Amino acid sequence: MKFSVTKEKLLEGLQQVQNVVSTRTTLPILSNVLLQASGNEVHLTTTDLDVGVRGSFEAQVEKEGATTLPARRLFSIIRELPSSEIQIDVDGKNAASIRSGQSFFKILGLPEEEFPPLPKFENSKDVTIRQKDLRDSLRKTSYAISTDETRYVLNGVLFSFKENKLTLVATDGRRLAMADIELEFPRSHEADIIVPTKAVTELQRLLEEDGDVKVSVGSGQIAFDLNNTLLVSKLIEGNYPNYRQVIPSETKERVTLEREIFLNSLRRVSLLASDKSNSIKLNFSKNNIDITANTPEVGEARESLPVVYKGRDFSIAFNPEFLMAPLRNLTEDEVFLDLIDEMSPGVLKIQTPFLYVLMPMRISS
Amino acid sequence: MDEKCNQIWQKLSVALKPQVSADTYKRWFSAVQLTSASKDSLTLRVPNNIYQFWIESNHMPALEAAIVSTFGGRRTVKFLCAVEDGSVAEQAERSDESKSPSASERKQDGSALGLNPRNTFESFVVGPNNEIAHAASLAVAQSPAKTYNPLFIYGGVGLGKTHLMQAIGQYVYGGKKNSRVMYLSSELFINEFIDAIQHNNLVKFRKRYRQADLLLIDDIQFLGGKERSQEEFFHTFNTLFDGHKQIVLSSDRPASEIANLEHRLVSRFEWGLTAELQPPAVETRMAILRKKARTLHIKLRDEIFDFLATRIRTNVRRLEGALMRVASFASLSGKELTQEVAEHLLKDILQEEARRSVTIDQIQKRVAEHFDVRIADMTSKRRPANIAFPRQVAMYLARELTKASLNEIGDAFGGRDHGTVLHACKLVKRRMQEQDKIRQTISFIDSALQR
Fold it and tell me: B-chain residues within 8 Å CB-CB of A171?
């Protein structure tokens, strides 16, 4: 195999796939990237057996062929190369010679045959989504994924295809984020699947502003085809909990808040929320919210926020990080906060179908 | 019991209601049932896992406060998810569907799991020496986590521990492709643990092990003395055990005799079924040889089989090695094999056999038996004369009959240092010179061990 390519193209190609590379040391082949040169492009594939990514870059291919090379090492070499023109020549024993300007590197790879192939999809159910829609919805939900490995069904985002709607849900038991995407698909494609965190993170990296993504759901696995890049992942087995149970059915008070202003106030006040109690209090009174935090032996912070509010006076406490997370990831100017009382969950909403349920903290007073 | 539980739950509810909002109570606690209550734990049945997740995350302080005010003390709360019939069927269906693609991806035979495809139940030769271990393994493989959990297999080198464990792994893996089978040696477990600490990804490490449906750990005795690894393994063990996942362990000695293993681990290892593998009797050795010869397409005269089976008695691996050596000589030289030729070929093995490697364990056992002390006394810290002297004799024999270093011997005797062992050897030697009776005793034990 032999090809020439510009440094930028090769780096870009490697960046797309290298995050998947396994850190597990038991199977050395998994820390390698598969390179396949044919026509005028080179395909790159990496996998950790759970998630796999396949991308490509344009190159002048002089001799077609395939090999695998240690991904991290290759990436760090390419990044440091002095010239923009790179020539890679791989001999029959999978030793790659990399030439660029005055530099020469030789790195040893492993044969292509040892590289586990990405799973094939047969009889998969395909749905096409606009990349922007999926990216935005993932952004609005993925921060709520649980990292508690004992609740492994929560270590991912639920993709619920139902009634011409794709609902994305993530929860960690204290908060729940949910976003809908309107879609057209046949009844037979209805399904609930859980996409693991790693795949979600990688997917968010790959999704762009324009274009479509083809989602193929096979049994136990899912593929996202983004024109020139393919991401394949195993699904988390098990049933996602019945998240609708969490969503309050009623609401007593609603306040409309300017997202940026509210977020900035929270950020300032939370500076004085201690790690231990880590709560921030919202005190509601007529047309005003007082946001307060106080830590014994450290100090306190207070900020008032004028709002339109005509309900009863009451206080509710939240974990500031949990309250700020959705505000950071939304793009809308206005958000609505629906509350019932100081012990019931608060719900954050926007104009479009999105919902964030957050449990209050107990106020010790 | 149900009546009583209902009453307790009623009482608990009264205490709980003021702690949470009315909506919360209705939403999360009205569907909860108390299924069992003991002095230190309560089991709550919830309709599905969201109840468990949400109550655990948000309402535990309230629930605990209610428990304290009702019972006047703390109780551990366990949750039981009532699985809806529909979802079970759905799950079963899904696993059927997924068989074809995910199976091809994982490779058919489970060799990706590090299992040797030759090590199956079919290729295991059962004899009176390993009957129980085989039966227990098969029972475990047929219904994991239902019968014996954990299953602890122990026996000397080359008696089939690994074979049985891999057979369980392949049986379970072959039966249901979606089950997560993990097979590894304790050494690999330790290495990966160290690796995880180094690269700061313990979470991932835990996730890998704690999601297994079947965890097989070979040569668990190497955990001895590795404290952090033991602790990690302890938690892994508990998680899996509580989740009704099967655990199978193997070791070269009983759990209680593994040096420097924490008591809580020892007691857990002894919890399920412990099965011992003993060296095979001559008939079994014969059967093993014939089976092996058949699979390798080796043809030998009966007298050669007989010769091998009677002369090599300690170790199945060595037995197979000898068979290979004899067979390869026959096929390479084309000469007819006679007993003399075989004897010549296997000179080194037979010599070694004659001397018969003795392990420290055997010495301890034998000596303890002879002096009528408990085997645990060999490793204990107590040192009244009636225990100390047998222990010293055992140390002396270990020095004479095994290749173990002073340090290794010290470790095997409850972590004593090499000076202690050296002292014991000198002392026993001196007393052997001084007293005939002691010399006789020791030479008797010696010959019994070398038998």
Answer: 53
